[in-house]
Design brief:
Layout lengths: L2 E5 L5 H9 L7 E3 L4 E3 L4 E3 L2 H9 L2 E3 L8 H6 L4 E5 L7 H4 L6 E4 L12 H7 L9
Parallel strand pairs: 1-2, 1-6, 2-5, 6-7
Antiparallel strand pairs: 3-4
Helix pairs in contact: 1-2
């Protein structure tokens, strides 16, 4: 099965690595957000997922808008897409591209703490239980 991976920060790297190591799974493309300024010097730095993909020799796309990779997913004949902390809303047009759709791993027990910071929200609200969905 051909699976494209959408993710950006360090917590998404183990999921990418698990897919890369899985038998019978081919990851032809990793989609991540564009490089951003970091640190005191505000030098452009690649997202951790990009670094992991490049180490593994996987093609990386960094679109400003996620939908801009729809054509590439078609060209690569991607069967499904995995999303882990990508950081953009994926629109219907993109979601319809792979024949088996998208699977999203979210760092909270949905519907609790949806959004960009589910782990800090869980801690700040004193939840006694957490997990992934």
């Amino acid at each position: 099965m051909r699976i494209a991976f959408f993710g950006t920060p360090e917590p998404a790297v183990p999921a990418l690595e698990a897919l890369l190591d899985a038998p019978r799974i081919d990851v032809p493309l990793v989609v991540t957000n564009p490089d951003r300024p970091r640190g005191r010097g505000h030098a452009l730095a690649p997202p951790p997922v990009k670094e992991a993909a490049l180490r593994a020799g996987v093609e990386v796309a960094q679109p400003v808008k996620a939908g801009d990779v729809a054509g590439r997913l078609v060209e690569l004949q991607v069967d499904a897409c995995a999303v882990v902390a990508y950081g953009q809303i994926l629109r219907k047009g993109l979601l319809a591209v792979p024949r088996h759709g998208f699977v999203n791993l979210h760092f909270s027990l949905l519907p609790a703490w949806r959004g960009a910071a589910p782990v800090p929200a869980t801690i700040l609200h004193g939840d006694r239980e957490t997990g992934v969905t």
